[in-house]
Write a structure and sequence with these properties.
286 residues; mainly alpha; 12 helices; 76% helix; globular
Length: 286
């Protein structure tokens, strides 16, 4: 399936082609016209849209927030827009790209379609913005968030070799739980901690996170491991560089381990908001 977005302008294609060739990212020039606008779009949302909309939707909360919390609020706003957009786009391509559906193991490792490259391009634009935001406000987000943003961008760029572009699209669906995570965070900030809405949202958060990251994710990892191993055993004209296989497998395995850790933390965070105070704690409060 061809890229349904308009083709990359010739000037931009030629300008990025030498860099892409030097980095062995052959399909990157075909999608720079999606990466760069996405990066600028998310920065515009962060600087302009989020402050404007948030001040009107939460006039009693947003303007009074301290600097660090306001920065976090805006980042969650960007994350909300991005996750809703990229999930919709990824699901549409997964169910519409017939060429992608017919891929065998070789094509799943080395194959490429314009539509999947488009999703990867928009996702890369967000990861580039996320890395910039993490660097600018590392005191707010922490070094862990900076490392996560950098690794996400590197893994995303690897897909432009192309390499396991097929699975990259499947891993985008990790973001299915992100909208509920953002809502959970916002409900705390607007004084709705422990509300019925937060309970319903918390159930949706744990369900989507568990299904997308602890069931769908490991299954996709397993299928990807099988295809890469098969490619290593049958190198032919397209051998898999050991460093590339280790880098990709290492990063996805580490992320799967982190997902298990985060899921445990989420369960604690959600249940804590609905636990009744202990008898001793009630007396202290009185």
């Amino acid at each position: 399936m061809r890229d349904p977005f308009f083709s990359a302008p010739a000037t931009l294609f030629k300008a990025t082609e030498p860099i892409a060739n030097s980095l062995a990212l052959k399909t990157l020039p075909f999608h720079t016209h999606e990466i760069l606008p996405a990066f600028c779009f998310y920065e515009f949302i962060n600087r302009v849209v989020s402050p404007y909309v948030s001040a009107r939707l939460a006039p009693g909360t947003y303007p009074k927030l301290p600097r660090k919390t306001k920065i976090n609020w805006n980042v969650h706003f960007v994350s909300m827009v991005q996750s809703c957009f990229i999930n919709t786009l990824a699901l549409w391509v997964i169910y519409s790209d017939r060429e992608r559906m017919r891929m065998d193991w070789k094509e799943r490792v080395w194959g490429y379609t314009g539509a999947s490259g488009m999703v990867q391009g928009f996702a890369t634009g967000y990861f580039a913005w996320d890395l910039m935001a993490s660097i600018q406000d590392v005191d707010v987000h922490g070094w862990g968030a900076l490392a996560h943003a950098a690794s996400a961008l590197v893994v995303s760029l690897m897909g432009f070799r192309p390499f396991v572009n097929y699975y990259g699209l499947n891993f985008i669906l990790y973001e299915l739980s992100t909208p509920f995570l953002n809502v959970h965070w916002w409900l705390d900030k607007v004084g709705m901690t422990g509300s019925a809405l937060q309970l319903v949202n918390g159930i949706a958060l744990l369900t989507t996170f568990g299904c997308s990251r602890l069931v769908w994710g490991p299954y996709q990892n397993y299928m990807m491991y099988k295809d890469i191993w098969r490619a290593i055993q049958n190198p032919g004209e397209l051998p898999v560089p050991p460093w590339l296989a280790l880098a990709y497998l290492g990063s996805t395995t580490a992320l799967s381990a982190l997902n298990i850790y985060w899921f445990g933390k989420m369960i604690q965070a959600v249940t804590k908001r609905f636990e009744k105070p202990r008898e001793g704690e009630d007396k202290k409060d009185k």
